[in-house]
Amino acid sequence: MTTLGALFDTAVTHLQHAAAESAAVAGPAERAALAGRLDTVLQQIRRGLGPSAYTPTPTTEERFLTPAEKELEALLTQASAWLGRAREYLQHPDAGEAAGPVSGRIDAAAQAVGAVRDTISSHLGPDRAPLTPYAYLMRHQAAFDYLSGRYAEVARTAGQVVYRIAQGSEHAGAAEAFSAARTSLDKAAVLTRVATREADAHLAAFPLALPVVPVQAGPGDLTSAVTTRLAEDSERLSRAAYAALHDRDERRLSGSDLR
């Protein structure tokens, strides 16, 4: 079952592999392309900051950020600017289509970070009203701190990739820009870690909201999958009970539905 913790871990792992595999990076065009890919990861993180990304209560007011989120966003923006400067120095400002194992790793990390926002949104309706009781967990400071802390961890690991792709750069200005970008990402991780000490680590188990559609077990299913089935069925039943309690469906659940 998809959980927030698993998605963050996936993003970090992909970036760690990207850093390890970046030793083979050669030439300014490839460095510029990878810098663009890394900026996509940072953009995904910024999109996940603020209540518009995860708070059930809709708002038309100016986007509110916690102090930790403001600091993180500012440093991510700063890092993006330095990555853009490096790309300009390498004379490939639009490079970003290069393929390869490192690019694939970075793209996968960006997808995992984006899926964090999608996972939380799966518990909210079109009007941002809660569809499950899990949505209420995202109204507390400890939840905001958990997300900020994990986003900062992803940013720090992205900084490791920046460091590796900067190795061997023949352009002094690009090398300096890469170094400044990594410094911003490292600083973001340190400051966010200090500001989010009260984070709720249990949010790692926050799951994707499953549809209220029963999945029948088949005769060929492994017995080892029974516990997973039970967990998923429990989640579905919880969501169905919540929907019935709050009458969000067009019709009331019947006995056959609960069966």
Throw out a few tags for this protein:
mainly alpha
Protein described:
With 259 residues, the protein is an all-alpha fold. Helix content is 62%, strand content 0%. It is built from 9 helices and no strands. Helix 2 (28-47) runs antiparallel to helix 6, helix 4 (67-89) runs parallel beside helix 6 and helix 6 (141-166) packs antiparallel against helix 7. The model has no long low-confidence stretch (mean pLDDT 85).
Looking at the structure, what is the overall shape? elongated
Order of helices and strands: HHHHHHHHH
> Roughly how many Å apart are the termini?
23 Å
Radius of gyration: 21 Å
Total count of strands: 0
Mean pLDDT reading: 85
Q: What's the main sheet like?
A: none
Strand content: under 5%
Fraction of helical residues: 55-70%
Runs with pLDDT <50, length 5+? none
Task: Describe the secondary structure blueprint for this structure.
Elements: H1 4-21, H2 28-47, H3 51-54, H4 67-89, H5 101-121, H6 141-166, H7 172-195, H8 226-246, H9 255-258
Helix pairs in contact: 1-5, 1-6, 2-4, 2-5, 2-6, 4-6, 4-7, 6-7
Give a brief description:
With 259 residues, the chain is mainly alpha-helical. It contains nine helices and no strands.
